[in-house]
Amino acid sequence: MDRRKFMTSCVAATTLPALAIGQTNKKYRWTSVDLTALNQALVELERTSRGRIGVGLLDTASGQVTSYRGDERFLMLSTFKTLAAAYILARSDQGVDKLTRRMSITDADILEYAPVTRRHIGPQGMTLAELCHATITTSDNTAANLMHRSYGGPQALTQFIRSLGDTVTRHDRYEPELNKPNASEPMDTTSPNAMTSTLNTLLFGTALKPESRQLLQSWLKANTTGDRRLRAGIPPNWIVGEKTGTASIGANDAGFVQAPGGAAVIASVYLETDAIAGPERDQIIATVGKRVADLMR
Question: Per the database record, which ranges form the Beta-lactamase class A catalytic domain (predicted)?
């Protein structure tokens, strides 16, 4: 099958061609017609981007999964911050650490983009819960690095990701180095399918205690950096929780969308291009959001 084609599968099943799954599983709400239309739309969006787009979707009600370039690697950029916050929550659940523990902040810790942490320099610094909130809702880079410091660095986060069954996603470097591709190995990358599955495990599975799942969801819903991306294509009365990622070479958005009274759909969108400006990248991801909403109606 051409890599541009959609692949539809049940989470627990082997990937099969979209038509075969759509015809044999009545519980699936996304038909082959729906997915063909979505595929065509993404082909056009990718052409417009003059780059590469990856999309992974998972319906939490049925387990149906569909993707476009779903197994290709993309830089995570700041979408890794959801995973970092989840790891801190997991450590709290296990009694290894406390969300109320304070991390001191020095002038040397402050990176160029630190809208929250730069206001808390000093021995009292911020609590781990406050750092998680800051890095998800504003994408504060210093907060992310301090979170890494709390649990032993990027490699420790990768080990946590492996414990969730994700063998693809890897985190290797601190901010801001992680935003640049490594020529020799795929550092700080994920695939749309891997991120979608891992987000499902963290947000709607049993990897975290219910209170921690709800807290992680609340941080994602409170995000302020994604108004022009997935959220822009979703009806205003729907629930959206997501984390963006931005660099000179691309733009990402990964989280969940939920219609009133419906089940959530996990959506991971990765756009790699340096051929168009930021607002154009945002518009492409917003259009993906609209297509996701259309699929959920």
Answer: 55-270
Q: Residue 228 is which amino acid?
A: R
Distance of alpha carbon 250 from alpha carbon 278, whole angstroms: 8
Assigned CATH topology for domain 32-295: Beta-lactamase (3.40.710)
d(CA 264, CA 247): 28
Quote the strand ranges of 11-101, DSSP E: 52-59, 64-68, 74-75
Residues contacting 53, CB < 8 A, separation 6+: 42, 45, 46, 68, 69, 269, 270, 271, 272, 284, 288
Question: Cβ(39)–Cβ(32) under 8 Å?
Answer: no
**Structural domain boundaries in the chain:** 32-295
> Has residue 19 got a pLDDT over 80?
no
Q: What confidence tens digit (pLDDT) does each residue in 210-262 have? A: 999 999 999 999 999 999 999 999 999 999 999 999 999 999 999 999 999 99
Q: Quick one: which H or E segment has residue 85?
A: helix 80-93
